[in-house]
Amino acid sequence: xxxxxxxxxxxxxxxxxxxxxxxxxxxADVWFGLGMFGLVGWSIVLPTLVGIAVGAGFDSRNGTQGVxxxxxxxxxxxxxGCLLAWWWVRQESRxxxxxxxxxxx
Length: 105
Known about the structure:
- The chain has helices spanning 3-26, 30-62, 69-104.
- The radius of gyration is 22 Å and the shape is elongated.
- It has three helices and no strands.
- Helix 2 (30-62) packs antiparallel against helix 3.
- 89% of the residues lie in helices and 0% in strands.
- By secondary structure, the chain is mainly α.
């Protein structure tokens, strides 16, 4: 290993240790993980259920001719829910990744 590689390795190890320490200080433990898991789950489930309900309402008014609005609502709600979950996870990971870089500079 060259001196440059050792410096980079030391900095990476230090950054990981700092993140771990900050997570402990902030109380990011099992409950935080379960909370995030629940947030992602509900952000998928709620739009899906709303899409199904709206689609079922359209089906009950128009009968079952042609397009199944219940299935269309299911697909639209599931798509919206997955996009929301992706956005939440992206926001959380962006916040976790930005902190060490701001502190080091």
